[in-house]
Each structure stands twice: as structure tokens, then as C-alpha cells.
Amino acid sequence: MSQQSVSNGVGTLYVVATPIGNLGDFSHRAEEVLRSVSCIAAEDTRHTRRLLQHYGIGTPLMPLHEHNEARAMEKVMAMLRGGESVALVSDAGTPLVSDPGFLLVRECRRQGVKVSPVPGPSALVAALSVSGLPTDRFCFHGFLPRQRHARREKLDALRNSSATLVFYESSHRIESAMADLAEVLGPQRRGCLARELTKRHEEILDGTLAELAERVAADADRRRGEFVVLVAPAEASATDGRLELEADRLLLLLLEELPLKQAVSLAARLTGGNKNRLYQRALELR
Ligand code: SAM
Question: Please, what is the average pLDDT of the chain?
């Protein structure tokens, strides 16, 4: 059912973005909407209460988090069908972006209940906008798996992605995640580490994945806070003609002395280049 078919008397679900650190990023419209609705469904009501107190907003809160989303959804749907409007917020940034709310929004769309965004901060877009990496195509992967083996498998599957890769990461795993990124995607691949965006200790580092991993490992302060990790697309190095030429020269030399597989493996280790691509290139050169 499209939004045009929403019947009168049904409320609206507002999906409202909140600051990712700096309260100054809370929009005027977000404030107005949170003031005007009957209820605010919040990931953590204690957290959101502090925001509401700061702005003197007295709207009642109800919890909607990953452990109660299905039950909370029924409650919100009943309110919406009864003609009351509800706002959905998460602890920080845009709801549904690595945050709860998907079940509720999907149900509203299914039932033809109007869902309206109140856009604002999201760590993903904020980091991308300052990373200096290509933004025409990017792929957001949320949090990487916690287990090393699963994480490396996931990264391996993304090696050839032609989009900028974006991940969220926590302080507990940033060091091991950066080490895996450098190892699996290649130490020379460029990346960006956006830490504590919009907060007092905001820091945006760029460099090769090996450099970034080293800087994180070398300084405990660099492992504090919240992180967005961005990685340049695989093509970035392939389209660099000079690097391609150097890789070709190296491959030709190695192919003179070694079997193809060994030559490719060594070239990949020496250049940090993509193994599959080097393999294809070695076949062409041979
Ligand atoms: N919905 C949020 C959004 O739109 O950005 C993301 C919620 S997710 C549960 C939390 C993760 O987002 C953090 O672990 C971190 O990776 C990232 N994040 C949130 N705030 C951040 C900030 N100020 N600086 C860097 N990363 C941040």
C-alpha cells in the first residue's frame, strides 16, 4: 500500500535522527517533532531522557530496543492506528543504521501507515564526507564480526569491492580490526579512521591501512571512543597507471624465475596488491 492510500485518522511514525556527540547538531525540526508527538519510542529511555531534559521536552518515552522490538512494535502500531503520532529515536545518529527500528518501519510500510524522516546526523555519512575517499559508490557493512576468523572471511569476500567500504567499530576491537584490514585487504590500500566525530577528541586519520593499523597499535589514546573505518575501493590502486606498471615489471621478473602461483603470491605480498587481479595479469603477461 502506498503512502497516498493512508486513511485519515492514522498517525505518522517520525524517524528522527539525534546527535552523534555534539548536541548542537540536534535540528530545530527534530526538536519540534519530538515535542509534538504523543510518544517517543527510544532505544534507551534513560539516554534519550537526558536529551529531552536538555531541551525541556516533556513527551512520554517508551523503550524500543533489539530485545523487545517485536512487542514494542505492536504497541506503537496500536497508537498509530488510533490516530496518535509517534517518534522513533536511537541513542545516537539515525535510527535503523546499525540501530533498532527496522521491524517497526517495515510494518508501517506494509500497513500503509505514513513514515516520515527527520534527517540529521549519522556517523557513516559524517565520516564518508570528510574521508577524502570516493563517495560516488560506497558500501556500508555495519560492524565487522567479533570473531577473528569470521572477520577475516568477511574481509576476504570484500577484497575486490569497487566501492569505498565503510565499517563501524568499537574501542574493544579497533586494534585487531585494523590489523586484519591491513593484512587481508593489503597494507598499501588507503583508508581513513574517523574517531569521536563531532566530539572534543575528534580525530580523522588517513593513510595506508598498514600506517593506520600501526598508529592505532602504538597509542592507547587512539583506541578510545567510537570509530568509523573507511577503506578505498579496490580499483583505486588498479587505476593508478604507475603502480600498474611497477606491478607488471615485478611480475615479469618473478615469472622468469618462479612458477606462476608463487610469482603471484610474492608479487601480492610485495605490492599489497589484489592477488586475484595479479593472477589475471600474470596470465596475460605470460
Ligand atoms: N545509528 C548510528 C548512526 O547513524 O551513526 C550508529 C549507531 S551504532 C550502534 C554505533 C556506532 O556508530 C559506534 O560504535 C561507532 O562505530 C559509530 N559512531 C557513532 N557515533 C560516532 C562518532 N561520534 N564518531 C565515530 N563513530 C561513531
Answer: 93
